[in-house]
Write a structure and sequence with these properties.
The structure holds 2 protein chains of 2 kinds.
Chain A: E1 3-6, E2 9-12, H1 13-17, H2 21-27, H3 35-57
Antiparallel strand pairs in A: 1-2
Chain B: E1 25-30, E2 34-35, H1 43-54, E3 65-66, E4 70-75, E5 81-84, E6 90-94, E7 99-104, H2 108-114, E8 121-128, E9 132-137, E10 143-144, E11 146-153, E12 166-172, E13 182-186, E14 198-203, E15 212-219, E16 228-229, H3 231-239, E17 244-247, E18 253-254, E19 257-263, E20 268-273, H4 275-280, E21 286-290, H5 294-299, E22 305-307, E23 310-313
Parallel strand pairs in B: 14-22
Antiparallel strand pairs in B: 1-3, 1-8, 2-10, 4-7, 5-6, 7-12, 8-9, 8-11, 9-10, 9-13, 11-12, 14-15, 15-16, 15-20, 17-18, 17-21, 19-20, 21-23
Classes of the chains: A alpha+beta, B mainly beta.
């Protein structure tokens, strides 16, 4: 499971990335973070989920 | 051609320089942990294997449970018995049976854990002050603890005359485990490395609000209202690790946890479940919340504890 810890809250990044920003902010509104902070956390989660996917699909560097 | 069986008895009796001899016991470690030849191939590998078995979760058959440091030892070995024949020849009838009474320092909370071993036959490893970790080796080369019958006597009230301690008695089950089967790992570990874990119990300090649960983490003590909250020491570190949850048969149906946060007011964790999945559960559904394992905690520098799982109920 991909995780992102932001301002003391650890988010399930896989779940977060599957939700829209609006859905995520509404779902985690009780966390004590502001809406702006939650949007930032959502972005970080999406990035975290994309990063391992990108590493898996990148071609290896060619050497001559 | 041999004319007696003496040539087939025992083996050569040449003295090995610096042969191992037992020292004074300093620590007992109970459990069915075993080590194979790959584990004891060298000191470093074996020591790492021992350490890894100290932080296995309860219920793992390879887990080791260290007892407190030994403060005193009273030899309670049953002496060998002999009989005399009519003309005076002394014949040994029965081999001695090693047994010992150890003094250990244990508080009332720890005594509740130690007393569970009372009357049990338990494999024990014994660490002595020569850094020798004693056990037995079987015919397959597996190194394991020797079986002892254990007794645990709690510390009584003081009498202002004699020091009082918790008493742990051990009596070996198979005397051949003390000699023929006995083997020793010479360790780099000290008794301060070989320590047990403290149990942490999860609880709900207040009723849940829909899919959001408050989870407290405390070490039980024998003092009323004196359980130790580990939040200040480890709350943030534990919140950053992975919890899992499940429902249904054997709690095998995963329930997604969307976030784990610290609650600095209640000094507990806030665990949030996926609201869609949670809403679909019927009222009264049991949810098993499983915390990170001792090994995962240890790797995150949350050392010396094991957090037990908790069964939550969807109240509404």
């Amino acid at each position: 499971m991909n995780k992102v810890t932001y301002e003391g809250v650890t988010f399930n990044a896989d779940w977060a990335a599957s939700k829209s920003e609006k859905e995520f902010v509404k779902h985690e509104a009780h966390s004590g973070l502001s809406a702006e902070q939650l949007k930032q956390a959502h972005n970080l989660c999406k990035t975290a989920v994309k990063a391992p996917a990108n590493e898996a699909t990148q071609e290896p560097e060619r050497t001559t | 051609m041999a004319l007696s069986l003496c040539a087939s008895i025992g083996a050569n009796t040449g003295i090995i320089d610096c042969d191992l001899t037992r020292g004074n016991p300093v620590k007992l470690a109970a459990g069915t942990a075993t080590f194979d030849s790959d584990d004891y191939a060298d000191t470093t590998t074996m020591d790492a294997a021992i350490m890894s078995k100290l932080i296995l979760p309860n219920g793992d058959s390879q887990k080791l449970y260290p007892f407190p440091v030994i403060q005193g030892n009273t030899d309670q070995t049953e002496a060998a018995t002999y009989g005399n024949l009519g003309y005076g020849l002394k014949v040994k009838l029965l081999r001695s049976k090693p047994g010992y009474e150890f003094d250990v320092l244990a508080g009332t909370a720890l005594e509740k854990k130690l007393i569970a071993w009372d009357g049990q036959i338990v494999p024990f490893y014994i660490l002595d002050d020569k850094k020798q970790w004693a056990g037995v080796k079987d015919s397959n080369g597996i190194f394991k603890g020797a079986n002892y019958l254990v007794g645990v006597e709690p510390r009584g009230y003081g009498d202002a005359q004699n020091p009082k301690t918790t008493k742990v008695t051990i009596s070996i089950v198979d005397t051949s485990d003390f000699t023929e089967n006995a083997y020793f790992h010479v360790t780099e570990l000290s008794s301060s490395n070989i320590v047990g874990l403290k149990d942490v119990v999860l609880s709900e300090p207040q009723a849940h609000a829909a899919n959001v649960y408050k989870i407290a983490m405390k070490i039980p003590t024998s003092k009323l209202n004196g359980d130790l909250n580990i939040f200040d020491d480890y709350g943030s570190a534990i919140a950053a690790l992975t919890f899992t949850a499940g429902t249904g048969t054997n709690y095998g149906t995963s329930l997604t946890i969307t976030s784990v946060a610290v609650d600095n007011t209640l000094k507990c964790l806030t665990v949030t479940f996926d609201s869609t999945a949670f809403t679909a559960l019927s009222v009264g559904t049991k949810i098993k919340l499983t915390p990170p394992t001792p090994a995962t905690l240890d790797a995150a520098d949350v050392t010396g504890i094991e957090i037990g799982s908790i069964i939550l109920t969807k109240a509404a």
